[in-house]
Write a structure and sequence with these properties.
By secondary structure, the chain is α/β, with parallel strands linked by helices. Helix content is about 35%, strand content about 20%. The protein has 24 helices and 30 strands. A ten-stranded mixed beta sheet has the order 6-15-9-10-14-11-13-12-16-17, sandwiched between helices. Strand 29, helix 23 and strand 30 form a beta-alpha-beta unit.
Amino acid sequence: MKAYSLHISGIVQGVGFRPYVYRLATSFQLKGWVLNASDGVHIHIEGPDSVATRFIAAVETDPPSAARIDEVSVESVQIIGYEDFEIHESEAADDLRTFISPDLATCASCLAELFDEKDRRYRYPFINCTDCGPRFTIIQGTPYDRPLTTMADFKMCPDCAAEYADPADRRFHAQPDACFVCGPRLYLNTSTVVGDYDLKWTWFPSSETKPRPQRDRETELARSNSIILEASEALHNEQILGIKGLGGFQLACNARSETAVRRLRQRKHRWGKPLALMFPNLELAERYCEISDQERDLLLSPAHPIVLLRRLENEESADLAPSIAPGLAEIGVMLPATPLHHLLAEEFYGPMVLTSGNISEEPIVIDNAAALEVLRDVADVFLLHDRPIHSRYDDSVVRVVAGRVCMIRRARGYAPEPLRVSFTTPEPLLAVGPEQKNTFTLLDGDTAFVSQHIGDLENLATLEAFEETEKLYERLFKIRPNSVAWDLHPDYLSTKWAEVKVDEAGERYPLASCGVQHHHAHIAAVCAEHGTEGGVIGIAFDGTGYGTDRTIWGGEVLISTYTDATRFAHLATFPLPGGAGAIQRPIRIALALLDQYELLDHPGAAALRARLETHEEATVLSMIKNKLNSPLTSSMGRLFDAVAALLDITDDAAFEGAPAMLLEAAAPADLHARPTPPAWRFALADDGTFSPAPVLEALLDDLVTMSEDPDTLLTTAELSRRFHEAVVNVIGEVATKAARETGLSTVALSGGCFMNRLLLAGAFEVLEARGLCTITNEKLPVNDGCVSFGQAAVACARLYTPQWGAIELET
C-alpha cells in the first residue's frame, strides 16, 4: 500500500475536476479525498502502488475536456487509513491563486436534455452542468464555489441539491446548477417593473436578499415558452430585441430584413461596421457561407466564437440584408452559445443579427436597470433574466488564414485563460495597453493574465470598465503589481491612468514605471507567445503608433529584442492633412500622397480630384504646404486607406480601418488568382525607407488604361490584388535585407494590417520561400489586443533582466 499527495494547478476549477477525480478514484477502488483550494486541486490517495500510479497517469493525460493542467506535483506521504474516497469542502487562502475557467458553451448532454420533453429541465433557459455554462462572468471570489458567485442567492430545490451533492452526477458541484423551480427566470417587457419583480434591484446583496419562492415547473415552463415565442415574434415583426446574454446585453434583429438592420444601425449609431449573425445550427449556416473543417471545429468548440466566413454567392446569401456587411466578402457567424440562445434561435429559425448591447464606443451593458435606461431608445422589446452578471464579456472573434487560427477579438470562451511565458518576473507587473482595442496584462512569475477585450479607451465609461476589470483581476488572481508599463503616447487614457496610479502609490508603495513604444510591444508580444529568445526581424504594420521621434509610425521594420528595438526600415513618411480628420476622409490622404510624389497632374488622378468637395483640394494642399495640422506618418494602414480612395472604393471611412477592409474585399480571394510577374514595386532607398511612389504611379497608369482601353482585362479587383502583392513583396525584400545584414533568421509579424487575409498569407508564403522562420500572434489578436502583453514582456526585460537585449548582430 502507498499514499500520495497530489497538487494540480491550472484551470481545474469550474470544469468538473473534483467529480471527475472522485469517479476515477472510486473506479480504481482508491481511498482518500479531493478538495478545491485557492491554489488549485489537492488530492490524497491510498491504495496499491501500481493502481495509484495508473490513477496519477490518468489524471495527467485524460482530464476533463474543459480543464487545462499546468503542473502536477506528486509526493509520497504517510498512509492515514481512509475507508472510502470523499470530496472535502473547499479551502480558501488569501495568499494563494487559482485559475478560473472561461465561460463554456452549452455542452451536448445539456443540449439533449434541453429538447427532451421527458427531462425536468426541458426548455429551461439556464440549463448547465460541470462541462458548460457561466464561469468567469458570475464569479466574485475564489475558490469557485456557489457562495462566491452571483448564484449565491438562488437556493437550490431538493432535486437540484441532490444532484449537486451526488459525486456520480454530472451536476455534482456545478455552481450555477438550477431549474425552473429554483433558478433564474425570464422576463419580457420594456418597463422597469416586470410581473412581480422590480428590475431596478439588480445585484441582490446577500444581506438584503429578495425572496424567491420556489415555483411550479409546469407553470414556469409554459411561462418561459410564451416569452420565447413573443421574443421570436418581435424579430419576425422587424423589431429590435435586447437580450441579456452571458457576459452582457446583446441586440438582435431579423438578418433578412433590411428595414430592421438599418433601424438597428441608426439607433445604435453603428455606421458601416459589419454585424455578426447567429444561425440556429451548422446546417443552416452552411447554406449561406463556405465553412472549412477547421472553421466548423471553431464554431462548435466550447468557446463558440464568432468566425469570419466567406459568403456563398447563392440565393440564400443574397437574401440577407445588404447592410449587414456592406462591401465585404465575409460575415461573422456564430452558433448559439447558451440555452437561452438555443431556444430563441430554434423558435425563430433563421439568421439573426446579434451584436453587443451598447451605444457604439461605450461598454456593453450588463444589468437590467442600466439596459432599460441606456438601450430604451434602441430596443423595442427586452428579453431579460434575473441572474446577475459580474464581469462583462463581448463575443470572441476569430478567422482562419492559410490553416492558421487568427484571433481578432479575445473575450468570451478564451479569457481569462492565462498564458505561460518562457521567462519569469521576480516582481508582479501591470501593463495597461493602448487606446484602441484595449486589453491589460498582469504578469506574475511565468504567468500572464491578459484581460478580455475592453474596447476603445476614448471615453470615461470605457475607462471605468477598464478600471473595474483590472481591480477584479488583481483580486481574483491575487496579484499586486510592483511596476506599471504603458504606451509612449502621452494622450492615451491608459497612459494617463497609469501615470496617476504611479503618482498615487507614492513613497508608501512605490511603483516602477516603464514606457514602451507601440510597435516594439507588438513584436515583443509575438516573441513572448512563441518563447522566442534573442533578436528577431519585427514587421509591425498598422494604422497608428506613437514613435520614439514623436511622429506617427505604422509601417515599421524593427530589429527587436525584449529590451530594445532599432528601426531598421520603414514606409516613407507622408502628411496626414487634418490629422485624425484625414483618417475619417482617406481621399485627403490620397491627395497628400499624389502631391508629395508630384502625381497630381497624372491623368489617372483626375477622377479622384473631381470627387473632392469645392475648395477642398486647395485647402488640403495649403495645410500641407504650411505644415498646418499635417503630422507626418509612416503608417501602412493609412496607405491602404489612400489606395482604397484612389481605386474609388471609398472616399470616407465609416469607421477606423474600413477602407482597408473594403480594399481587401475588392481583391480576389487568392493573391495568385492571376499569376503574373510583379507589376508594382516599392522603391527601397539607402536610408532604410521604402517609398510607395512607383506603386502609386503604376496604379494611376492602370487606371488610365481601364478608362481608355475597352478591351483591357484590368479591373478594380485586379488593381487591388496588385497592391496587396506589392506590399507582400516589399515585406520579403526588406526582411531579406535585414536578415543579410544582421544574421537574424526569424521574422515576427504583428499589427492591425495583418488582419488582412491576403497580406498575412502572402507574407508567410514569401518569407518562408526565402528561408526565414515566420511567426505571428496566435493566442492573442494581431491587432492592438496584443499590445499590453508585449508591454509586459518588455517591462519585465528592462526592469529585471536587461541581459535579454544583449544580442550580437552580424554586419
